[in-house]
Write a structure and sequence with these properties.
Structural class: alpha/beta
Low-confidence stretches: none
Number of helices: 14
CATH class of the largest domain: Alpha Beta
Largest sheet: 5 strands, mixed
CATH superfamily of the largest domain: Periplasmic binding protein-like II
Strand order of the largest sheet: 2-1-3-11-4
Shape: globular
Helix content: 25-40%
Strand content: 15-25%
């Protein structure tokens, strides 16, 4: 019987996940003897909870999600396409908000399911009292910001920021707070697995990592094929939206540790920063070891051409 492998995405299917979608729909997984099914986000159950209870085999989530989970010791960080944070936090230029400290007493729209650690770390490092910043969980941070329900909003450079402009609020009308400017940048998407699955099905995990790497290599070398698959899976988004998003993903992949070590490297520093953020913001997690949480052996065992970046 063919093994059915499920991968829980961090959002709805779109070019942000192009490589995984190609692995599912371009026959890459089938050639390895298993089927891959990419599941969209379920706001009723966070990805780490779903992974830990066995509702999926793998999940796309951030190192911070792993560290903040109820059992980080049961999870492992296997690869990361994005090597830098894609998040920005816009405020209107015509507001009195010039610094993150000015968000005290105001509202910030954030995604549900525990997506706000980077924002809270940025506020802390910028000297703001995070307890005085009201957080509004919503799946539509753009709508909350454009309507005025929120004074600031969590957005990605490849999706929500463009949606904001499509809703009539141009980029030159906002001021962007970038976590990196305060030393609070955290990685977003990573491939996370349960350690019990790794112990029981080592070869499957290796195959899955290689299939994902292969899917992303195909996405970056043949972007029109990737756009076609993404458009098929998510037709309510235009091909141009998928194309633009994929280009942002290529830029996020070709930076950071990947430049010296290789594409999608699960670098310990990504885990270290997440641990530091949780410890500084929430006061726990200091006993976690980034060298244990970031498991490199599957990535290291993958063929060299799957970790090259000729498209960078």
């Amino acid at each position: 019987m063919t093994r059915d492998v499920t991968l829980r995405l961090l959002w709805r299917p779109q070019a942000q996940f192009a490589g995984y979608l190609l692995a599912e729909h371009a026959g890459l997984a089938a050639r390895r003897g298993f089927t891959l099914r990419c599941q969209p986000i379920d706001f009723a159950e966070a990805g780490m909870k779903a992974l830990l209870r066995g509702a999926c085999d793998f999940a796309i989530a951030s190192p911070a999600h792993l560290v903040e989970s109820e059992a980080p010791e049961r999870l492992a960080f296997l690869m990361a396409v994005q090597q830098a944070s894609p998040l920005v936090y816009p405020v209107r230029k015509d507001s009195a908000i010039h610094h993150p400290r000015d968000l005290e007493g105001r509202t910030a729209a954030i995604w549900p399911s525990g997506e706000d650690l980077e924002l809270r770390w940025m506020l802390l490092k910028a000297g703001a009292d995070q307890a005085r910043v009201k957080r509004l969980p919503t799946g539509d941070t753009v709508g909350a910001f454009v309507s005025g329900a929120a004074d600031c909003a969590q957005m990605t450079i490849y999706h929500e920021l463009h949606e904001m402009e499509a809703h009539g609020l141009p980029l030159d009308a906002v001021r962007l707070f970038r976590p990196a400017d305060w030393g609070a940048e955290l990685l977003k998407d990573g491939l996370i697995a349960r350690r019990d699955l790794m112990a029981a099905e080592e070869s499957l995990v290796q195959d899955l990592v290689e299939v994902c790497l292969e899917g992303w290599q195909l996405a970056f070398t043949d972007p029109e094929r990737a756009v076609a698959v993404c458009s098929q899976v998510r037709p309510e988004m235009s091909a141009e939206e998928h194309r633009r998003q994929l280009e942002h993903m290529r830029e996020l992949a070709a930076c950071g540790p990947a430049l010296s070590e290789g594409f999608a490297v699960p670098h310990r520093d990504h885990m270290r920063r997440a641990i530091d953020a949780v410890q500084e913001v929430e006061g726990h997690g200091g006993n976690l070891d980034p060298d244990i949480l970031a498991v490199r052996r599957y990535w290291q065992a993958a063929p060299a051409d799957l970790k090259a970046m000729p498209w960078a």
